[in-house]
Amino acid sequence: MKYDAIIVGGGAAGLFCAFTAGLRGRRVLVLEHNDRVGKKIEISGGGRCNFTNLHAGPENFLSKNPGFCRSALARFSPWDFVALVEKHGIGHHEKKLGQQFCDGSSGEIIAMLVGECAEARVEIRCGCRVEEVRQGFSLETNMGDFGCDSLVIATGGLSFAKLGASDFGHRIARRFGMRVTDLRPGLVPLTLQESDLRLFGPVSGASLPVRVKNRGRSFEESLLVTHRGFSGPAILQISSYWNEGDVPVFDLLPGKTLSFRPGGTSAPALFSEFWPRRFADAWCSLRAPQKPLNRWSDRERRNVLELAHNWPVAFGGTEGYAKAEVTLGGVDTAGLSSKTMESRSVRGLYFIGEVVDVTGWLGGYNLQWAWASAQAAGLSI
Ligand SMILES: Cc1cc2nc3c(=O)[nH]c(=O)nc-3n(C[C@H](O)[C@H](O)[C@H](O)COP(=O)(O)OP(=O)(O)OC[C@H]3O[C@@H](n4cnc5c(N)ncnc54)[C@H](O)[C@@H]3O)c2cc1C
Q1: What is the pTM for the complete model shown?
Q2: Is 234 exposed, middle or buried (0-12, 13-18, 19+ CB in 10 A)?
Q3: pLDDT in tens, 44-77
């Protein structure tokens, strides 16, 4: 069977691209190997899908070529997606920092995408495994052979393999002579080294606001202690800028002034004004003098305060793709047109969404990239 375009991957980018092209009269087929489309959207935003960020701009993305995403993001803005959501009567709200969430559930976004595909007469086949791809293009699958003029790869990144993530997109790129940049987990919890884990593991669940800095980047968000290390928005954000051997520095009292009151208070009691008591106990047990505050010297006070505002933490590693929200790196943008996402070397071959070396911060940016890159390709195929 011959189509104008076949899209491999029925996730955020694939579905959006499919109906964009379908509405232009193209005959489009989506091939998804899961039993249903949009599984990652389903769990996104804790089940409420943080579907965009109103402030999304190129500065919120990591890529070997930071300017690559500019054109697509400019042509399909967060407001364009909000307009689509509102056209479908989906209630939404801003949580913080421009992050837009569904009032109900992520299922509403999936239903919207599938509904748009139906209107655009897009054919969707789930449970379909692509076994062979030949230039031209012809695809051999467990459901038979298909041909198309344009082939769009929208198979996403490597994280959350249990939801269907695969390296298909990266393999296809290499197979057609295109480059793939180094890949690593992003927006991922970081694990503590043994000695720190002994101290903080038992206070798992404690959370506090921090400012964390690494490689010239800083994020002010909350930190969550886990049984393997640190997580929470501050950690997920900085993890995308973390490389092995880096030692991020934490301000555990961002924008706060600690006043040493006279009296016999202990250090944990003092810090627990701002931190959960369990965290204060653990932190102070190694980093503060073990005596009442009124017996601290000026130098001891200065040292402890300095450390609370500039606490270096040497992490052991990350929790890997199983816990990462995204994959850093992907199909090298040097081989793609920033206007259409088409390969510069293989006519008719497109890459969109997370499979491309464009990775957003936490907060709705990754889905905005999925929509924007999908629209760029959908208007071209
Ligand atoms: C837990 C979690 C929460 C997240 N929350 C948010 C959030 O709230 N906001 C946000 O902006 N981003 C969020 N993200 C990131 C966001 O979900 C992804 O960046 C986005 O879904 C990428 O879209 P995509 O279409 O490129 O890939 P995906 O949505 O992952 O879709 C890829 C599709 O391709 C299919 N596929 C893979 N290989 C094959 C193959 N060989 N054959 C056929 N089909 C294949 C997959 O099954 C999948 O359906 C979250 C990620 C995770 C893991």
Answers
A1: 0.97
A2: buried
A3: 999 999 999 999 999 999 999 999 999 999 999 9
103 φ, ψ (degrees, to nearest 5): -70, -35
Compute the CA torsion angle 69, 73, 74, 78 (nearest 10 deg): -160
Q: Which residue has the tokens 């404690």?
A: 206
CA–CA gap between residue 313 and residue 249 (Å, rounded): 6
The residue whose CB lies within 8 Å of the most ligand 1 atoms, and thus the one to mutate among 48, 142, 237, 325, is 325
| Per-residue pLDDT tens digits for 221-250 | 999 999 999 999 999 999 999 999 999 999
Q: Which helix (H) or strand (E) holds 212?
A: strand 207-214
Ligand 1 atom 22 nearest Cα: 354
Question: What tokens were used for 99?
Answer: 């992050």
Phi, psi of 26 (to 5 degrees): -80, 150
Residue 305, SS3 per DSSP: helix
Ligand 1 centroid, distance to 157 Cα (angstroms): 7
- Using alpha carbons only, what angle is made at residue 342 by residues 338 and 345, rounded to the nearest 5 degrees? 110
Q: Ligand 1 centre and the CA of 156: distance in Å?
A: 5
The whole-angstrom separation of Cα 117 and Cα 279 is 50
Are residues 264 and 295 in contact, defined by beta-carbon separation less than 8 angstroms?
no
Phi, psi of 40 (to 5 degrees): -75, -35
The residue nearest atom 45 of ligand 1, judged by CA position, is 9
